[in-house]
Amino acid sequence: MEASAARKIAEVIGVVYEELKNTVTKTEFNELKEVIRELAEAQKRTEQRVEELAEAQRRTEERLTRLEAVVEELAEAQRRTEVEVRELAMAIKDTRIMVGGLSDAVGYGLEDRAIKSLPTLLRSRYEIEVDSPLVRKFVKYNGRHDEINIYGTGRKGKKILHIIGEAKARLAKKHIDDFLKLVDRLENKGIITRDRFLLVVTYSVEPEVEEYARDKGLQVIWSFEI
User: Are 164 and 204 in contact, with CB atoms under 8 Å apart?
Assistant: First the structure.
């Protein structure tokens, strides 16, 4: 082969090689550009997501701030309610004391009338002669004490009776049951005997309660009768 022909072939091969080399480089460059574009797009989406998360965080913080304010308001309202409840409890206690005092005053007034007037009524209605003035009596035993609203002794014929009475503004079954328990305690301690006359004096009593009292052996005496 002639030298000139060989040079031509070498030149052609060089050109082909350079073209091939340039073609590969451009393809790789284009691929790199595509990768970079995708990365940039991904970065953009990431930044957008981060911004959304930041906005969500701000909204969450705002809600938490509002929630803290609401909780504080509720705590303050609770404190005010507790104060009001304590004040109401004190007012109820004072009212109970006042009502209790009024009830005692009414009860003692009824007892005083009964103690003064009962001897005459007992004589005329039940043929019982009271031996000595009736009294309000406190009895003590075993470290406790009981109050007897109306206490005394009397005679019916030759029999000596203990007169035990209770005075209630508005008689209820509970009063009757409590009174009978008191009578049992007095008998068990030997303060009274089974020879006794039991009575209750009241301003008001419902018919079924009055019947209940009489069934239990109590004489019901209305306030207007004394």
Answer: no
All structural domains of the chain with their residue ranges: 109-220
Q: What is the rounded average pLDDT of the residues 70-76?
A: 88
Cα gap 166→201, rounded to integer Å: 6
DSSP readout, 84-98? Answer: HHHHHHHHHHHHHHH
**β-bridge partners, 129:** 155
Do the strands 219-222 and 196-205 form a parallel or antiparallel pair, or are they unpaired? Answer: parallel
Segment 18-34 mean pLDDT: 64
CATH class belonging to 109-220: alpha beta
Write the Ramachandran bin of 142: left for phi over 0, alpha for psi from -120 to 50, otherwise beta: left
Rounded Cα distance, 178 and 218, in Å: 13
DSSP single-letter state for residue 158: T
- The pTM of the full predicted model, rounded to 2 decimals, is 0.56
